[in-house]
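[job 4471] stage=fold_predict status=RUNNING
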Amino acid sequence: MEQDLFFRESYDTTNLVCDRGVDKNIGVYMLSWDTNPYYYYGGSIDLIGRRQQHFRSLRNDYHRNFILSRIYFKYGLPNFTILEYCDKSQVDIIEQKYLDYTGGDKNNVNICPTVTGKGRIIRQETRDKLSKSLSNRVVSDETRARISESQKGEKNHQYGKNPSQATRDKMSKSASSRVASNETRAKISESLKGENHYLYGKHLPQATKDKISKKNSGGNSPSAKKVIDLTNGKIYNCAKDVLLDFQINYNTLKAKLNGTIKKNETPYRYLDKMIFKN
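[job 4471] inference complete, writing structure tokens
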């Protein structure tokens, strides 16, 4: 690539405003070395601060561009060369021009091919660090309360929005067809075992247990099966409700309904089995 095609100017902070009125602290720059062919393009509305930021993060080994860091450890600090001064609104446009011009050049060490951040390459080591840092993060009750408050009422991003029925159907269809792989299921199961479970070490007060028990008792239980009386067609929400009208031991009735006791002389049958037979 012919670098001479680009206009360059040595970094001079003594006169930050050009005669044409363009701020000389705003523009597009290039990092390069005299001892190797690598280069990096960037744009900033504060060129002085950006130069210091690059050099400081390289020296202290926390620069977000890992390729620049590797080159620095081998060759030292790069040259900071200003390519163009421009108006604040033109920084991204001009920087993208240089990125497009050098697209595909192996000596260009910009991680992302666009100034918007799309297409950025994140190495596996960085992904693992992010995953580990997020998995160990514990959100305090105070933070949870602030998040909750920020999402209430008109502050919620869905406030006042009513999805159409067509949209609701699409969302429902999309969610119903989503099937988790066995590997994903195993990961979820493992993540909720023992101390990892969000209820680990928590004990519900007796009042709460009583409320849950009452809510799920009888026909309110998610596992409750409806029972039908074949003599009059009356439908009960569960087997326990039958005991209000028929004097029989509960366990005996359950055994007859389930078929454990083959001879069922009672008029009661599970409704779902009757529907299935029909």
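[job 4471] summary: The radius of gyration is 34 Å.
[job 4471] exit 0
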